[in-house]
Amino acid sequence: xxxxxxxxxxxxxxxxxxxxxxxNGIDFEEIxxxxxxxxxxxxxxxxxxxxRQVPAIVDGRxxxxxxxxxxxxxxxxxxxxxxxxxPGDLFKRSKIHxxxxxxxxxxxxxxxxxxxxxxxxxxxxxxxNAQAAKEGEKLLVRSLAKLEDFWLKDGxxxxxxxxxxxxxxxxxxxIMQLELLSEKDRDRILSPYKKVVQWIEDTKKATxxxxxxxxxxxxxxxxKFRERMATESVKNEVKSKM
Amino acid sequence: xxxxxxxxxxxxxxxxxxxxxxxNGIDFEEIxxxxxxxxxxxxxxxxxxxxRQVPAIVDGRxxxxxxxxxxxxxxxxxxxxxxxxxPGDLFKRSKIHxxxxxxxxxxxxxxxxxxxxxxxxxxxxxxxNAQAAKEGEKLLVRSLAKLEDFWLKDGxxxxxxxxxxxxxxxxxxxIMQLELLSEKDRDRILSPYKKVVQWIEDTKKATxxxxxxxxxxxxxxxxKFRERMATESVKNEVKSKM
Lengths: 242, 242
Fold this sequence. Notes:
The structure is a homodimer. Chain A has helices at about 10-25, 45-50, 65-75, 90-105, 105-125, 130-150, 165-175, 185-190, 195-205, 210-215, 215-240, and strands at about 5, 30, 55-60, 60-65. By secondary structure, chain A is α+β, with helices and mostly antiparallel strands. Chain A has a four-stranded mixed beta sheet with strand order 2-1-3-4, covered by helices on one side. In chain A, a hairpin with a 2-residue loop joins strand 3 and strand 4 (about 60-65). The interface of A and B includes residues 68, 76, 98 and 146 of A. Chains A, B: One of its GO terms (biological process) is toxin catabolic process. Chains A, B: Keywords: Detoxification, Transferase. Chains A, B: This is glutathione transferase.
């Protein structure tokens, strides 16, 4: 029985797991858990992941959630996975644990704080929260500076590596969430960090064509959001002239 | 040259690393980085950990930060560490990664949100933030319920284990931060979760006498905070009668 991977491609850790499985030729079944229609709260999904979040996997009788834990598991459980994704060398492996842990409270929290409170929340009928968005952006910008000056200072990929690891897929998928912002905002935030921009491109190339294919839904959403924002901006302009 | 461990015992992940080293008889030098006087921002410490947080370790030429990554490294680098702390079995190990990842965005974020915004921040001259404290408590209570109903449902320790792992030390040290609240608030939050309360006791026993010794500074701070809160409460009472 093939590995079952429960995901919503609009979720950045879900995309990381999918891209990883595809680039490594892991035989799996993708099962969509539509967050927009609250499918993660169904009793069936509660039995898979009681935390009611995506992604989660079921491999035979073994169930697992939390994307970093899943990526590490896949590296160890599937012998065909090349060692650069999760090196056996203790020092290299420890640095990957370190950047993945750092990610939780920094890059991820910043990106989610900004994108949720400016785009996702309001589009789902939640009140916008300018203060939370501002704090999110502050943490995001601080995290991008640390990526530029520390995590990417010694190599093309994180922790000074010449080849990508699970950390690169994980963190780049997170940053891709910024595509949901307006082009102007995305560029204002991201463009000062040249190494980061280059690293995103390098990670895309290293995981092509799966990276773009899995992000297809995000680009569709981006188009819709940007059109809606443009319409609202025109509406506001008309209103202000009345 | 012995392992160097950079810590402030008021920080919960610092205490987790110290207790782990002591219970496993690891030869190490404890180097205090006093957060209260901003020693983490010194140029010397920046060279150890550019993220300017504790804990961090230096083992020979190898530097590492992020407490979960450090605990995993110590389990692998020191052959004397018993396997229950970080099992070699892939399924058991993966569950430990999962609970440690979950910790970042749930129990830790909830506890820090509550304790920082009600106690630590205001005592350090920062404005108190009732909304952030309320959100922290909400996330903390939700996390305690998940510990009770899921993570502790199958055994004395996390993920159904009969012996403690690095996750137990890590998460219990986090919950110990609630000792800084008033006794009434601590009990109101914690006492509904019987399994959690028992698990804290079991983890203390499994790591005695180091657990209490390393937490000594926290209990001293608790005494001081509670005395100060009592004085301020009397002052407010007198004011309200004037």
